[in-house]
Write a structure and sequence with these properties.
- By secondary structure, the protein is of the alpha/beta class.
- The chain has eleven helices and eleven strands.
- The strands form two sheets. A six-stranded mixed sheet has the order 8-7-6-9-5-10. Strands 2-1-3-11-4 form a five-stranded mixed sheet, sandwiched between helices.
- Helix 4 links the parallel strand 6 and strand 7.
- The chain is globular.
Length: about 325
């Protein structure tokens, strides 16, 4: 018998490269792996259903589950996780010193449904700032115009306006036409050192660290999806993906811990690893077990923010074969 030839779209990460370069084998699969940006992967997956296996936006995936014929079933492989206190950018000349000061302000977003933005709105809610307190301005970050991956109708009390034609959010933030920006990528004007653009939380690492100690939440951003028709036809496939991507991540973390010569172009790797381990050993874990509270917090926020008409249950999210594994 020959292996299945399947297309796989994932990001170019240390935890996916062993899949890409063949050091880790997916049982029964001959993969055609494409390394793509999140924007490209997610647009292709939810607009055109192009790949057999694809990294997916957690938020857009949850939206798809409440609609007819969702194309993918997820595997609890969390290819992207990130603390999102770093993702709130402000004009420092607009009198914004705390989250409460965002009320009544115009904040740019690439898409309301972005997973990072769901987590940011949940964080702001803890400070008493509701989505309805902000005017959200939607547009492309660096180029004008950007469609939502999946269409949705925002709640009646939430205001979303489109950026002016021909204007990017980066241009608007740099010019002071919006008061801030929320998103998974830092705006170019911030990266270039604009004197009036900064982060809402100046020491975002310290704030996020304390938030983790209080909540034990390391936010999940992306999941791995497999075409439902393939999972139905080959019920062993989701388990094979969970196994292979787990092995790939283990290989990456082992290499990262070998600091005889750092594997990333970044100083202080040992210190960063130690800080992460002090928060939680194996903080970047795959699988449902141990991540239930993170997933449930996201599902609660997703529904509260109007992105899902009902709160999804964890049991709906992942292929049945991936909720538990064998032991020796």
């Amino acid at each position: 018998m020959t292996d299945l030839t399947l297309s796989v779209a994932v990001g170019d990460y240390d935890r996916t490269r062993p899949i890409y370069d063949g050091r880790v084998k997916i049982d029964g699969v001959d993969p055609v792996v494409m390394l793509q940006s999140p924007e490209e992967m997610f647009f292709n997956a939810f607009r055109h259903k192009t790949c057999d296996i694809s990294e997916l936006s957690f938020s857009s995936y949850c939206m798809s589950l409440t609609r007819d014929d969702p194309p993918y079933i997820a595997v609890p492989v969390f290819l992207s996780r990130a603390f999102r206190h770093t993702s709130i950018y402000i004009r420092t000349d607009k009198g914004i010193a705390s989250p409460a000061d965002l009320k009544g302000k115009k904040i740019g977003i690439a898409e309301y449904q972005l997973t990072a933005n769901v987590w940011v709105r949940a964080i702001l809610q803890d400070y008493g700032v509701s989505p309805s307190d902000i005017e959200w301005v939607r547009g492309g970050m660096d180029t004008a115009g950007r469609p939502e991956k999946l269409k949705f109708t925002p709640p009646d009390d939430v205001t979303i306006t489109l950026a002016p034609e021909g204007r990017s959010l980066n241009e608007m933030l740099a010019a002071g036409e919006i008061d801030g920006f929320v998103g998974p990528r830092w705006p170019r004007c911030f990266a270039e050192g604009h004197p009036n653009v900064g982060r809402l939380f100046a020491d975002s690492q310290a704030v996020a660290t304390q938030w983790y100690k209080d909540t034990q939440i390391f936010p999940i951003m992306h999941v791995l999806g497999v075409r439902r028709s393939l999972a139905d036809q080959h019920p062993w496939l989701p388990g094979a993906l969970l196994k292979a991507f787990g092995q790939s991540k283990a290989m990456a973390t082992a290499a990262l811990a070998d600091t005889s010569a750092t594997k990333v172009t970044m100083p202080f790797v040992e210190d960063t690893l130690r800080l992460a381990d002090q928060l939680q050993p194996n903080i970047w874990s795959y699988g449902v077990a141990g991540n239930e509270h993170v997933i449930d917090a996201f599902l609660t926020a997703h529904h509260a923010q109007g992105l899902s008409p009902r709160k999804l249950d964890i049991a709906e999210l992942f292929h049945p074969a991936t909720y538990e594994g064998y032991s020796l």
